[in-house]
Amino acid sequence: MTAAKPTAEPFLPTKRSLRALQTAAEKCEGCSLFENATQTVFGHGKAKSPIMLIGEQPGDQEDRAGLPFVGPAGRLLARALNDADIDPGITYQTNAVKHFKFTRKGGKRRIHQKPNRTEVVACRPWLLAEIEVIHPQVIVCLGATAAQSLLGATFRVSTHRGEVLTLPAAIAAGPAVVATVHPSAVLRDRSDRRDEAYQAFVDDLRSARSVQLRSAS
Ligand code: URA
Ligand code: SF4
Questions:
Q1: Could you say which of 35, 119, 135, 168 has the lowest number of CB atoms within 10 Å?
Q2: Ligand 2 close to Cβ of residue 121 (< 6 A)
Q3: For residue 193, how far is its CA from the centre of ligand 1 (angstroms)?
Q4: From start to end of the chain, where are the E strands?
């Protein structure tokens, strides 16, 4: 007998409102990541937000606060949204994986670990349910984890960043998708090209914004 694949599926509520989803997600044990994290970090923003931003997973600060994008990557994202003329109030911000994955180094410091494909797939039912209730006009995948969750494991951000893509029909009809780098990648860039990396990130957000404006009119 093969072991059952980890999945959030049995934890999803029948009622599909944002509030019902968020409440149910607090109790998710769909994969092992709930064991060491402080809490589920569900998405944040209004239902029917026209732009949905998807990161990888909560970081250390998000895990403590229970909200996505409140740490250093979130601050860079906020600045980039501002530079791309996107009001954060029209965005719904979430992650591909809802629990913080980490290792402890030395004493207390918690070091971010990338979620693996099994965890991303296990958590995807929450993300798909969010897409269904938010019904955004455009989805921005911030980094490979989010992009591969929606567009498949072979998707490469480096070859398709900034392009206007569509979701596979099996996921949802409607929203356009733009993939870009993760804000942490811009933060980590210590080279003399960091300003360029930041500008390219802002440009990708701008292209998402123009798609959204076109579909709104
Ligand atoms: N990085 C992410 O991908 N998501 C967050 O919420 C914070 C940092
Ligand atoms: Fe559930 Fe996702 Fe947390 Fe795993 S990471 S326990 S699937 S909410």
A1: 35
A2: no
A3: 23
A4: 51-55, 91-95, 102-105, 109-112, 138-142, 165-166, 176-180
